[in-house]
Design a protein that fits this description.
Blueprint: E1 11-15, H1 19-25, H2 30-50, E2 55-62, H3 70-93, E3 96-101, H4 109-121, E4 128-136, H5 138-154, H6 165-169, E5 182-185, E6 204-207, H7 217-229
Helix pairs in contact: 1-2, 2-3, 3-4
Bound molecules: 3-methylbut-3-enyl trihydrogen diphosphate (2 copies) and magnesium ion.
The site of one 3-methylbut-3-enyl trihydrogen diphosphate has 11 residues, from strand 2.
Length: 237
C-alpha cells in the first residue's frame, strides 16, 4: 500500500557538504569553511527540534575523508572536540541523546574521550537523538556487520538459516534507529558518497545547491515541506 505523505517524518539524515567550496569562494582556507559549517549544525538542530524530528544523523567524517591532508584532518578533529564541548549544555537543555556511528577506534584518543563523555552525559534522554557519523562508511558498516555475524555463526550462536534482512539490520551500528525518511545533501552533488548504504534504500532524497555553511532554517523547512508532498510507495502501487 502506498504510504501517505502525511506520515510523520521521524529521521532526517544529512550529508553536510560544501564547506571547502564556501571557503574557496571567499579566498579563505578550508578550515574556515568547516568552522562556519559547525555553526550550521547548531541552526539545524534547533530547526529539527521545532519540527519535532526525533532522529538527526549527520555525516561529519567519512572513511574516505582520512585521505585529506594531515592538517585538514586534525583541524576537523579539533573542531569536533570544540563542537562537543560547546554544545553539551545545548544537548542537555534540549534533552538530546548523542550517539556515534562509524569506526570510532580510528579517531584520536582525545576526540574519543570527549565523545564518550557527551554520550554518557546524554544517554538517559529518550525523545531526541543526534547521531554523528564519524569515520563512517556504509560499506565499512556492512562489512563490520558481516564479521559479527560470521563470529556468531562460528560460535554456534546463530545458524546461517536465521540470517534475513531483519536479523542483518540488528548487526548494524545503531540497530534500533529507524531508517531515514529523508536524506538531504547540500552543495549539489548527486551522490551518496558511502553514506548509510543499507538504511537509505527507500529514503526520500533532497539535494540542494546551497553550500552547507549557508544552509539555514528556511532551507531545512523547504526540504521537510517537500517531503510531505511526496508519495512513498515502497515498491507498491
Ligand atoms: C563537507 O565539506 C565536510 C566534510 C566532508 C568533513 P567538504 O570539505 O567536503 O567541502 P567541499 O566538498 O570541498 O566543498
Ligand atoms: C561526504 O562528503 C562526506 C561528508 C560530508 C562527511 P565528501 O565531500 O567527502 O564526498 P565526495 O568526495 O564529494 O563524494
Ligand atoms: Mg565535499
Amino acid at each position: 500500500m502506498a504510504e501517505t505523505p502525511e506520515k510523520k517524518i521521524k529521521h532526517v539524515a544529512i550529508i553536510m557538504d560544501g564547506n571547502g567550496r564556501w571557503a574557496k569562494q571567499r579566498g579563505l582556507p578550508r578550515s574556515e569553511g568547516h568552522k562556519e559549517g559547525a555553526k550550521t549544525v547548531e541552526r539545524v538542530l534547533k530547526a529539527a527540534k521545532a519540527f519535532d524530528i526525533e532522529y538527526i544523523t549527520l555525516y561529519a567524517f567519512s572513511t574516505e575523508n582520512w585521505k585529506r591532508t594531515k592538517d585538514e584532518v586534525s583541524g576537523l578533529m579539533s573542531l569536533l572536540k570544540e563542537f562537543l564541548e560547546g554544545n553539551l549544555s545545548f544537548l542537555k537543555k534540549n534533552e538530546t541523546r548523542l550517539r556515534v556511528i562509524g569506526r570510532i577506534d580510528d579517531l584520536p584518543y582525545i576526540t574519543r574521550t570527549v565523545l564518550k563523555k557527551v554520550i554518557k552525559d546524554t544517554s538517559h534522554y529518550t525523545d531526541r537523538q543526534l547521531i554523528l557519523a564519524l569515520s563512517y562508511g556504509g560499506r565499512a558498516e556492512i562489512v563490520d556487520a558481516v564479521k559479527k555475524i560470521a563470529t556468531d555463526v562460528e560460535n554456534k550462536e546463530l545458524s546461517p538459516e536465521d540470517i534475513d534482512e531483519k536479523l542483518f539490520s540488528k548487526y548494524l551500528y545503531a540497530p534500533d534507529v529507524p531508517d531515514p525518511d529523508l536524506m538531504i545533501r547540500t552543495s549539489g552533488e548527486m551522490r551518496i558518497s558511502n553514506f548509510l548504504l543499507w538504511q537509505l534504500s527507500y529514503s526520500e532524497l533532497w539535494v540542494t545547491d546551497v553550500l552547507w555553511p549557508d544552509f539555514g532554517e528556511k532551507d531545512f523547512e523547504e526540504a521537510i515541506k517537500n517531503y510531505y508532498k511526496r508519495e512513498r510507495r515502497h515498491g507498491g502501487v
